[in-house]
Amino acid sequence: MNTTCQQYMITLAETGSITQAARELNISQPALSKWITSLESQLGIQLVIRSKKKLVLTPAGQAYLKGCYKMMQIKQHTYSQISGLISAENEKIVISGTPTGGTNIFCSIFSSFRSQYPTVKLIYLEGYNKQTLQYVANGKADFGICSTLDLDSPDFEFSGTSEREMVLYLPAAHPLAYDASGLKYNEEFPTISLSVLDNIDFMMPSEEMSYYDGLNSIFIKMGIHPRILFQSANVDILYKMVKQGNGAAILPRDLFSPLDPVSPFSLKPKFILHSALAYKKGRELSPAQNLVKSLVNDRLVLLR
Description:
By secondary structure, the chain is of the alpha/beta class. The chain has 3 domains: about 5-90, Winged helix-like DNA-binding domain superfamily/Winged helix DNA-binding domain (Arc Repressor Mutant, subunit A), CATH 1.10.10.10; about 90-160 and about 275-300, D-Maltodextrin-Binding Protein, domain 2 (3-Layer(aba) Sandwich), CATH 3.40.190; about 160-270, D-Maltodextrin-Binding Protein, domain 2, CATH 3.40.190.290. It has helices at about 5-15, 20-25, 30-45, 60-90, 100-115, 130-135, 210-220, 235-245, 285-300; strands spanning about 50, 55, 90-95, 120-125, 145-150, 155-170, 190, 200-205, 225-230, 250, 260-265, 270-280. Strands 3, 4, 5, 6, 7, 8, 9, 10, 11 and 12 form a 10-stranded mixed sheet that branches. A two-stranded antiparallel sheet has the order 1-2. Strand 8, helix 7 (about 210-220) and strand 9 form a beta-alpha-beta unit. The radius of gyration is 32 Å and the shape is rod-shaped. The two termini are about 50 Å apart.
C-alpha cells in the first residue's frame, strides 16, 4: 500500500517548511517543491501558500491533509490485521479442564471460535482441578477451566466466575433423611450441623479436587472424623454412591433432583465453590485468546 504522497503532505504540514520536510523525508528540496506543484496541477487548486517564515495550508490543503491522515490510519489498521492473521497461522491455544464439566464447555465454544479463527489450533488438555492449575502455572496450558474456594490468587487471574453451593447429601435410609421429593428449584434446603457426619460412612472427593483441602479444614476445625468409605474425582460417581445408600457426601447443589432418593442439606455458613476460567496473572492475551476468554465466560455465566 503506497502512501508516499500522504507521508509527504503530513510531513510538510507538521514541519511547516519545505526545507525541513525535505530533510526529514530524505529527498531534495527541489524534488519536494516539484511534487507540490504537480499535485496542485492535478487537483486544479492551490494546497499550500509558500512564505519565508512558514508554509501555510489553504482550505483545500487542510482537506487533503485530513484525507492523508485517514489513509495512513487505514494502512496501519490493514497491516495490523494482516500481521494478526500471519501470527494466527502458527498460533495454538491450549485449554485444560476436567473430563466432564470442562469438556462440555470446550465442546460448546469450539465451533464459534473456529468460525472466527479457522487457522488457530484449539487444543483440550484433560486434568482435574489441581493438575489444571499446574498446567496453567507452568505454561503447558493457556487457560484452565477450574473451580476454586478463593478468587484472590497471586498467580492467577480468574474470569467469568460463578458460584456453586456445596451441600450435604444423605441417603434416603439415613435416620436424619427427609422426603425431598417436593422441593422446588432454587428452594432453600434445610440446614444441618456437620457434627452429624462424625463416625458415619462418607464419600470423599479425591485430593486433586478443588474443594478437598477446604472440606478437610472444616472437618478438622469441627473435630469430626467421618469414615472415608470411597473417594473419587468425579462428582457424578460420588452422587450415585449416595443415591445407592452407601453413605453421605458434600457435592454441588445442582446435582440434586427431587426424583432422587437423597436428602440435601445446606451447610451453615454455606460452603461456596467458584467456577472460573484461570490464566496467568499479568499475561497479555492475543486477539484469539481474548475470544476464548469471552466465549468461556459466556458459558460460565449460564452456570450461575
